Amino acid sequence: xxxxxxxxxxxxxxxxxxxxNDSAQxxxxxxxxxxxxxxxxxxxxxxxxxGKGFAMRLVQLGLKAxxxxxxxxxxxxxxxxxxxxxxxxxxxSAIQTGNIVRRVGAKVxxxxxxxxxxxxxxxxxxxxxxxDDETRETGLAPLGTLFEDASMIFLDGVISVLMAxxxxxEESMRGRHAIMV
Length: 181
Hints:
This protein is 48% helix and 13% strand. It is of the alpha/beta class. Helix 1 packs across helix 6 and helix 3 runs parallel beside helix 6.
């Protein structure tokens, strides 16, 4: 295995997986985010890192966004939306979070590779990123690498559309950057 083989495998797989998207579903995800009073994001492990990056970009767009589990995160209310990221859709804390969010009447967007998972059952929208672990080249993209990378790219694409819809620019977003670079 070489670095070049790994990068080529990862980028080719991501191109293939992300090129088949449902634009109506993406529009619905964007609509939920734009209509939400607050947007909450949740994920565990590396999916959590992807989620934190997404929440940070939402804040830079001027939206009220929070990562669930931080000490300063407010409660979820009916007029809110939550984006929950989980490769398997079977992570217990993600399922519990999805059920709580749904119970209060907020919209739940789930990003997963398993659209038949327990987490998917509590979602208003399931964004399925079809990573097949059975055919994955072990060693070239270990564990959940393909799902996590694909999720980050998918959510960055959502940010790009939100930028346009909100009339935001990199300059206006930079003004909300934590360190104002």
